[in-house]
Design brief:
The complex is a heterodimer. By secondary structure, chain A is mostly helical. Helix content of chain A is about 65%, strand content about 0%. Among the domains of chain A are: about 55 residues, no CATH class; about 240 residues, no CATH class. Chain B has one domain: Porin (Beta Barrel). Chain B has an eight-stranded antiparallel barrel with strand order 2-3-4-5-6-7-8-9. Classes of the chains: A mainly alpha, B mainly beta.
Chain lengths: ~525, ~260
Amino acid sequence: MRQIPKLILCLLLGVTVAAEPLMANYAAASAYYARRDYISSAAAYFQAYGYPKMAGEKEKAEWGLAQSLERLGFYYSASKYYSIIVRRGPVRTNIFFTKALEELGRINSTINLGQSHVVQLFKTRIDPAMVPGPARGFYFYYLGIESFDHKKYEQAAAYFQKVPSGSYFVKAQFHLGVISNLRGAHSKAMGYFERVRQSADKSEDGDWLREQANLNIARVDYEVQRYREAIEAYAQIPRESDNWLEALFEASWTFFMMQKHNNTLGTIHTLHSPFFENRFFPESYILQAITFLRLCRYKQVKTSLTKFKTRYKGVFDDLNKMLNKYKNDQKGFFRLTYDYRVGALKDYKRAWAILDSLARTDTYKEAGNTIRFADNELARLSRYGSRWGSSGLQDEVASFLRNKKAAAVKDAGSRLFDTASGSYAYLKELSDQTIGINTEMVLGRVDALRAQLKVGTADKKANFIGGLQSLNVTQDLEYWPFEGEYWEDELGGYVYNIESLCAKGGDGGAGGTKGGKANAGKSAGAEQ
Amino acid sequence: MTKALPKQKNFKALCTCLGVAAWCALVLLATPAAAEGGRFDGYEIRVIRPRFMNKTGRIELGAESAVILNQAFIYTFMVSGLLDYHFSETWALELGGAYGFSIDKADKTLLFKDFGIHTAIQRTQYIASAGALWTPVYGKTQLSNGQVVYFDSFITAQVGLTGINYKFEQCTGGPSLNGQPDTTPQPAPVTKGYPSVSIGAGQKYFVSQDYAIRWEVRDNIFAFPALDGACPGSTASGSELKNNITLQIGASTFF
């Protein structure tokens, strides 16, 4: 009988030791954290967060939990708890508000939290004076983005102006450039884009921004009819960039406006190469057709229009089927794009050009990154099952990560579907244009059609070689003939070598019309 | 993405063996430099861009290893250096020098071992030359990994001096008819220089705008008195013509 109290004592001691994590309090968690045992501290803080023993302990445990997760590299998981703190707003009891906002800004600079996540974060209006210095960029940038998305450009500009120097500054300057351009303040826009071009860093994000700045500079130049400068800006986009073909396509319009038809056709020739058979530039056929039209090469106009029809009829049909099937299935549509990207898709072959363009969008890439980061944390989470499983932390974080992934997929799927729908409408519009061009040509109203194009006056001083480069008379050039065989290194360097037939009354392909006589020799004179 | 097959432009078929390469270069002598400005006027579509490799006004410094291909009883290996000045993309002046050594082939050893025959050998020790280099072809080729490499095909004609080393091995060492050792004194080895002319053809593959890998085949021709290298008492007279066909492979850099 004397042994019984000892037995009970031992039993209690044993239970206490075994249940140590469950019984852990805030002090124990802090001790683990101080020892840099973040795995234990995360579990203990989670316990203290769920079962606070005194006032204020829940908030402290919440902060400690987020910090522990961040130290372990669980950035998304940490963002969950930082976000909870921030969403409570800068109230007196929310003592970690400022720090949490700073941490979220830092995490977002490392791994993109996703726009929807951040916008949700700032649903609670915060007094700007309460936003700490290091988080001001993060805060005002995303408020600007939200306003920008809602087309509230004045408000967006005001927010972007408040973004201080730091990791969000250049991006804010870029958006200010876009807003200025939308308002018609071209020189101001150029100033912003120039600043972005010069100050964007050498990172992947920096390169992307620099390219976007170059593209926008080119577009502004195009708008104000500084075509030569526009070409120079387009030429800044490197070949290996995803934006290269876009730059070439836009440059071909610029050449057209300059009446550099051989350069227009040469640039389009790259877009039509078999290397890019899955890229989506249907308008290039229309531009090709109207360029031939300006040169009174009616047979080639017909050929271009026929090629457009041949290439895009199937795209149009498959895209239609695809859109009908995934009308109410955003997740499925994202999956479809993903399958195309990884080479697992066997269906809708004729619409692969559309899926290819979708897979190159920022929407797709952002969602892809979210999935990748979330999967990475989920995989690592499974390793801590024995330590975090009993406390419920593992389940909670895993559930958050899965939901984040699902939300990213759904949101991206919806946006991608909208983009694809836009492509469908665009194709339909272009198809109507081909009918228009054909009809006008056959009816002999070629002059009227050409007049509608409102091209600029030919700049005889501006001559270009391939690759969007100005002709430099001191430079040695190399010439390669195109004999039906595409070489990868030659892409982007093609220049046509044909003359206008307008002086000869065209090539007779317009149903016998002699349209273009009024402009006889004009186009030819503009050729280099 | 479509992947272009390995191919070569300009003179289309890649000359992979030395003879074909030399022949092609000679044939192309009559063909204008295909990639130069103002060409391909008859083509509807052309690529026009800044020339990848500009040599005009640049100095080329290179080193090559050479082997003489047409020697029956010895192998001759040489190390050569070259210095070119490119007046234009097509014309250059070249100074070159090579120095080497030779080793006997098994045939030569067997002849002596089994039959007591020593062969008379002319061992090329050095070649010094200067001349003109003409580059009629500027082309490009695509490697199997998709990389495009630019190249020049050139021909050269040079004059210089070729040094031949005589060891007079054939003048002694064989058993005499009466079974007694041959006591005829062997002349001391000597190296004699002969004026020579060399013609050749080759290619430079530009690794970058400053470096090239080059190979060439040359025929080094010289005349020598028949008496040179003959044993004492020989009545040989007149002169003979000798061809040394060399294969040279090396690299060069441009300044």
